[in-house]
Each structure stands twice: as C-alpha cells, then as structure tokens.
Amino acid sequence: xxxxxxxxxxxxxxxxxxxxxxxxxxxxxxxxxxxxxxxxxxxxxxxxxxxxxxxxxxxxxxxxxxxxxxxxxxxxxxxxxxxxxxxxxxxxxxxxxxxxxxxxxxxxxxxxxxxxxxxxxxxxxxxxxxxxxxxxxxxxxxxxxxxxxxxxxxxxxxxxxxxxxxxxxxxxxxxxxxxxxxxxxxxxxxxxxxxxxxxxxxxxxxxxxxxxxxxxxxxxxxxxxxxxxxxxxxxxxxxxxxxxxxxxxxxxxxxxxxxxxxxxxxxxxxxxxxxxxxxxxxxxxxxxxxxxxxxxxxxxxxxxxxxxxxxxxxxxxxxxxxxxxxxxxxxxxxxxxxxxxxxxxxxxxxxxxxxxxxxxxxxxxxxxxxxxxxxxx
Length: 377
Known about the structure:
377 residues, mainly alpha, Rhopdopsin 7-helix transmembrane proteins, two-stranded antiparallel ribbon, two-stranded antiparallel sheet, 65% helix, globular
C-alpha cells in the first residue's frame, strides 16, 4: 500500500487511547447488543412485522453490520497505533463501512417516503409486501454496487487519519476519484436527506390540518372516522421516531461528509484528529437507533416489557395467550381494530375476540371524545 490518507500524527498517545476507549469501545459493545436485541424483537414478535417495520429491520441490520465489522478492528488498530490487519482487510473494512452507511441513510429515506405515501392512500388501499421487499432489495443492491466500484479502479480504499481505519481515497487528485467521491456525497448523503426533508415537511403539513378525533352516533360512520384518525395518529408517532433517527444520523455523518469535502478541496484544516473524530462519530451512529426505538416508540416499549416479563418469570404458552386476552379495566375509552376488521368501543379497555362485533354499537349512543386510542393491524 503506497499511499496513505494523511500522515502519522505526533498527538499524545495516552489521549489518543483514552478517546478511543470512551467513544468507540463501550459504545461499540452497546451498539452490537442493542441492535441484535432489536432484531430479535422484530423476528420473534408478529405484531412488529408490519410493512413499515420491515424497512426499520433493514436499518437495524445495517447498524448491526456497522457495529460488528467496523468497531472491533478499529479498537485493535487504535492500541496498535497502526493498521495491524493484512492489507486486504483494509479493502474489506472500507467496503463494509461504505455499504452499511449507505444502506442506513437509504433505509431512512425509504421509510420517510413510505410514511408520506400512507397519508395519501385511501383507508382500504394497502401497499403489497412485495413492493416493500423490492425497496429493500434496491437499498442493498445500490449500496453494494456503488461501494464495489473502488475494486474495479474507480478510486480505492486506503487507511485514513491515524492509520487505524480505512475509507475511500478522498484526498486523491485523480479526476476519476474526485468524480466518484463527489457523486458519492450527492447520491449517498445529499439526495436522501432532501427526500427525507421533503417527506416529513409534507407529513407535518398534512397532519396539522387533521381534525379532532370524535365518535359519531352511527356505527358505520364511527368506524370510518375513528379508523382514519387513528391511522394518522399512528403515523404521527412513527414519524416522530424516524425524525429522531434522521437527526441522530445527520449529527453522526455530517462531520464525516465535511471531512471528505475538506479532503477533496485540499484544505489544511483536515488534520489527523479531525479525520479521527469524524470517523468515530460516523461509526457511533449505530448506537443511537435502537435507543430511539426503545425510548421513543410506545409499541416497542410495550413489546420489550412483555418480553422481559416472560424471560424473567418463565414463559409458558398458556400464560402468554391468557395475557393477550385478559386486561385490567382502565379509565377512558380505548379502541382496537379487531382481527376481522371490526371495531368495538366499550368503557374501560377492549378485548380482542371474535365475539366482539356490531352488536355492541349501543355504546355509541352519544358522541364522545376518545381519550386513549391505539390501532393494531
């Protein structure tokens, strides 16, 4: 390997190791455990395997891949103060980082576009699962193909910063490399963020016009009004979660994009420490997403609490099925969409059973405001 991105630094080694220990090692372990746990929840919980959550699963896989392939070798190289692995591992390291990083932002863009499309669909229309899988295939296909170009002579993967990580050669003066880096910034960072910004601006503009949720006197009219309102409320909650994810992603990858632009322009402000800091923040993006799932998404929190109780007290099928149907009565009104697409409204909590049906429409004698409502598909 004849060329390196930046030269070896004379920074204090103790500060260097301390920085890596705090900002890489522990968050890397947390990212691996958290993303693996989120993926297990997706696989083992049927209620989470919705079309929108399939895209979130793609995001979780990319974060798990980022944590598993980037952080361990980064820590080892940090304490070695050099690239300790074979030369070919630098190529694999840079390729994996590019693929998982690109798949992450592309997944967020697809999720935003899908959320926006939901608000324009009629209540009876739905997006086929094949379309969702097609979008996921496009995300990973584009990421793999685009990041494979350095293997065929378009740019290359070389060590950067303190020689402890590898990325594409963004300081090369070669015209082909500069064109590739410029297109990577546009296609893998700018364009997805524009899509995300437009989609979420549209979502909040439409939701701002949404009227208050009300239950009308006619049973059929109540189903239509409440269902449409609750679908929009559910999309609002999920959109807030994704906005938090996008903000965390931008805070992580924007410094790295700035470092790449500084390298392309030959700016003297690009020091080894700047390159190190931007790379660390970029790889730490895998930590934020599962944390936001757990603390910002109500449905994930409920599933996590339920799984924790099952694992801590001992799980049995009888108790699990009984806990699904037996609920303590509470205050206010709650609504659930039944398995047969029927809606039953009662005081207190509602049970999910085939006996619940239109016969209970007497509870809609007077208009009432729904205090706490949830929708399940």
